[in-house]
Amino acid sequence: MRKHDLISSAIWFFVSLLILFSAPKLGFGSLSVPGSGFMPFLAGAFICLFSIATFLSALFTKGEEKVVLWGNINYFKLVTVLVLLLVYIFVIDYVGFLVGTFLLILLLMHFLGSLRWLPSLFGAFATTICCYFIFDVWLRTNLPKGVIMSWVS
Amino acid sequence: MGFLDSFIVGLQVAFVPTNLFFCFIGCLIGTLVGVLPGLGPTAVISLLLPMTFHLNPISGVIMLAGIYYGAMYGGSTTSILVNIPGEAASVVTCLDGYQMARQGRAGPALGMSAMGSFIAGTFGVLFLMLLSPPLAELALKFGPPEYFSLMILGLTLLGFLSSGSMLKSMAMAGAGLFLGTVGLDNLTGTPRFTFDSPTLMDGIDLVPIVMGLFGVAEVFSNLEQNIGARDVLKTKIEHILPTKLDWIRSKWALARGTIIGFFLGILPGGGAIIASFASYALEKRFSKTPEKFGTGMIEGVAGPEAANNSAASGAFIPMLTLGIPANAVMAVLLGALIIHGVQPGPFLIKERPDLFWGVITSMYVGNVMLLILNLPLIGLWVRALRVPYGILFPLILLFCLIGSYSLKNNPWDMFTMAMFGIVGYFLRKYKYDTPSLVLAFVLGPIMEASLRRSLLLSNGSPFVFFQRPISAVFLVAALALVLSSVLPAMKKKREAIIVETED
Description:
The complex is a heterodimer.
Chain A: H1 2-22, H2 38-59, H3 75-112, H4 117-138, H5 146-152
Helix pairs in contact in A: 1-2, 3-4, 3-5
Chain B: H1 3-14, H2 17-35, H3 41-48, H4 57-82, H5 93-102, H6 106-139, H7 144-161, H8 166-181, E1 183-184, E2 191-192, H9 198-201, H10 206-223, H11 244-266, H12 272-286, H13 299-314, H14 316-322, H15 328-339, H16 348-351, H17 353-374, H18 378-385, H19 389-408, H20 411-429, H21 434-457, H22 464-467, H23 469-486, H24 488-502
Antiparallel strand pairs in B: 1-2
């Protein structure tokens, strides 16, 4: 874990520097009238202090067993889920909840959940309809209609 | 209003058919959430939060609270039968619960965990009823400096009690504090870190953060490991009611678990997870045969299960009486109350006795419902456990998406959720504590307001926090915690507890 702690604390240290340099621009104020940048500065200082402490603690740790963080990982699954999620988020307003959700669940179940086409189709259809009735009709969540449904209505 | 009058008001509210219905729904969803690994109560409460907007606040909060303590009941089923904790507070139940199941004693393990949860849950609610009014009276003496110092103590405690590195946990608290400042400054109206985006002007919402860090990140973590069908222990579940010998062996574990759990639940930064770990460590220490822990000791199931349920009740105290959430779940519940126009704090008992006593009394009712749901219907939950992850994870992702979207009908919130999902995945990988981030994110704005008001009132004197006795006590306690974690003897003791419970 030592090497990983050194890397992650260094990243947090740089994040804290960004905050520490940007916060005073918002107006630090004075102790009697603290400005808008006061709290972000304190938060940045907090991250900075503890990231340095984590770094030093990792630096002086000796004789620790090696931890493999990035071995034996199914990157294909991770990247596919992420891409599908992002595509769904960006197109949902155009294609609408019904079409978008049906396709998302179908693809997730078939390609990542290793279900065959027929159960995936059935699962996607049932999930979409159930969610639509529970969230949109019953709980009035107002899910995105999409261009097609807007034309129809 | 006396204790009995308050209790009667509570009963009248809790037994309204609508409230009974939502209490049942909460307990049902809670048990399911507890049983199914991969979706914790924090994420589910966030998901259902926007749906309670159409309910009256009492029914809404009764349901959300039911999910929380219901999850504590359900979590043990998965721990005992699959050796995977259904939710984080049931991690230690795996140690002895699964061993009991392997020895053909799944029934007594499940039974003791449900009975222990029921007993502790009921006593927890009783303590909650007795302790809340005097604490609310005390809280009336709190000014901005006391609030600020209490929150400092809470964050320090969270770091101290976190199962991993205290330093990393504190860094996460800093990140949460920073995220809480994004948006318009409440006092001056200055936009902070908004990058001219109108969406960021309102700040970042809690729901997408929680959904991302707890829901999406968990899915990512599970997917990277090619999880197949879960290996549910094929054992006949019989003799669910524990025997006389089981009761004799477990009675002190139950009592100690209930008490330690309740007080760890009250402390900001404490909570059910810490409570169950602490109870296990305590039982091991009290036991005449500590070496047998991990081989199927019923005390190792009874103590932690009692502790996590009683902690779930205790956690309501600071939220309802001070308006300060003790953990991430309470933070979401606090958000729910505020959205409903209810301001939790010392005045809540007087201003909304119906809500205060109604919610607490519904927890008694909920405990009875949970006992019925968990003992005779155990077979149903075991069947739910066999649902393959390939079906489960698309549903979890979809619920997270809908939960984030329905908050403001804004796709941007789904994007925020996805981003926090990625961040949460990396934080988990590098062993950073995400609950610290969430709690600090919620406490941040309250802390900032208290800090700035305190400094304004004292003309900029930082000594104001030490001049007021209650505030000074909180700060000294926080300082003692920090020092004790640095002192080698205490550091060893803290690490020993963590190692002991992780073994």
